[in-house]
Amino acid sequence: MAIDVIVALNNEDIGQKIKAVLMGSGYNVLTVCTYGNELIRAIRQLSPSIVISGYKFKDMNLIDIYNNIGEMCSFLAVVNEPYKSFVQEETDIFCISSPINNSILINSLDMIYQSERKVRKLKEKVDVLETKIKERKVIEKAKGLLMQQKGLTENEAFRYIQKCSMDLGLKMVDFSNKILSDK
To answer: Which residues have C-beta within 8 Å of that of residue 180, sequence separation ≥ 6?
Structure first.
């Protein structure tokens, strides 16, 4: 699978050279940007996985860009040594030093992409767990209502919800919502 990348450097020639290296390594370079505002627009329109960026642009710097749209994708900063510690202190952007070593560039991109995939999977797991917790709360409320209104034990209320939802072909949470809305 090709990884979508945007290259953003204030020097167009270096940007094009990086683009050629990336494309030769199987990356899909969506565009090369030379201005910060241009990069922000490109990120919003193209939704890249990773942005390779320098620090200074004619209209803004990397910190300004990151503060504007940093949550939309991962960044790899190619910076001179004085900026490296500053960027790493202010953000969670991974940095490599300039001048660029091609193998370090490719290895860094691979590492960022793998980390991004792990984070995405963890977010998906969190979403599933949050949904299960919300559903469990609804079922618990419905059980409580049944216990109060019908004098059922907790286990009897659960079995009632379980049986009725199976008989009606509904999920337990959907039947529980029906119980709560009919009260």
So the answer is: 138, 141, 142, 145
